[in-house]
Amino acid sequence: MSDLRTNEFVKIVEVGPRDGLQNEKTPLTLNDRKNLILDLVKTGLKNIEVGSCVSAKWVPQMAHSDELFAQLSKDTDVSFSLLAPNLKGFESALAVGCKEVAVFTAASESFTQKNINCSIDESFEKFTDLMSTAKAHGVKVRGYVSCMVDCPYEGAIAPKKVAIVSKRLLDLGCYEISLGETIGTATPDRVKAVWDACFAEMDVSVLAGHFHNTYGMAIANIYQSLQQGIRIFDSSIAGLGGCPYAKGASGNISTEDLYYLLSKMGYKTGIDLSALMQASHNVGQVLERHNPSNYANAYWQQHSA
Ligand code: HMG
Ligand code: MG
To answer: How far is Cα 50 from Cα 37, in angstroms, rounded to an integer?
Structure first.
């Protein structure tokens, strides 16, 4: 086993403004969404998902994500990205100067159907046009595969199936594949089996872990992933999130808890702790929500007068 106490860099993709806010009962105003992103920029995070160019009938919380993107500074070293399920969504992202989009499918037929109203094969047909347009415009494309372990409709998903869908996304031209543990039911042994299946198809360096924390297992699953060499993780400020098409699934691992694990183990993240805590505090005020992050709660207990 490799030495985990290291000064290696771990890339964090902040998904709070997208995965976090797509599940809010009352959509935030564009201004509140923008303020959250500006707070996140101050933390030193270099990869931030701004929103989704999806149907506002399906996910009203993400309406006007392209407008929001247009309001962000282009003079930055932060990669602001948008989700796009098809060419229409991609064109909205392109029109506002977006340089990175994420496409999303799943290793489960039922979840793909509920989430984007098509089969897995049909999702790839949509991505083909999107990908060639992205290549022509120099836009980077990240790929998501939901249901890396369990599907809310089908139950357990075979690791081999996850590996096959991930490889298809890579072959299509995605530069990075994020595996979504969509409903947060996984335990480290099952996560290990999925990474092992993927390693047979692709290099560890293109894989990212996206762990929801419904059963409190996300940090254990991240530790397992680190042991297997994964160095890219998605997280959400204040543990916000869920998927509108995965009932009962709670938020992603909080960026605060991920930061604590990584920094205490010696990994570099480029995050400024006090700015992270300020962003965490501010979004809590806006949403009037208890923060499920253990670290954020411990931090404020120690830092309140
Ligand atoms: P559809 O109804 O099959 O689409 O929806 P359609 O092509 O038949 O078109 C129907 C209408 O939608 C048309 O408008 C289109 O123009 C419009 P109308 O003529 O009726 O006025 N339309 C669009 N509008 C805006 N943006 C677009 C777009 N495309 C078509 N891009 C669609 C298909 C994919 C659009 C729909 O199912 C959808 O928007 N789904 C949203 C899915 C979503 O956002 N899910 C959450 C994100 S994924 C996630 O959270 C998981 C992840 O975090 C990883 C994990 O945790 O597992 C990534
Ligand atoms: Mg998610």
So the answer is: 7
* Domain that residue 206 falls in: 2-303
Q: Is the whole model's pTM more than 0.85, yes or no?
A: yes
What is the CATH number for 90? 3.20.20.70
Q: Best mutation site among 55, 82, 243 for ligand 1, i.e. most ligand atoms within 8 A of its Cβ? A: 55
Contact 268 CB / ligand 1 (< 6 Å):
no
**Measuring CA to CA, how many Å separate 302 from each of 238, 256, 296, 299?**
18, 15, 10, 5
Cβ 127 under 6 angstroms from ligand 1:
no
Report the domain count for the chain.
Answer: 1
Summarised one tens digit per residue, pLDDT across range 2-38 is 455 567 999 999 999 999 999 888 899 999 999 999 9
Pocket test for ligand 1, best of 54, 87, 133 (most atoms within 8 A of CB): 54
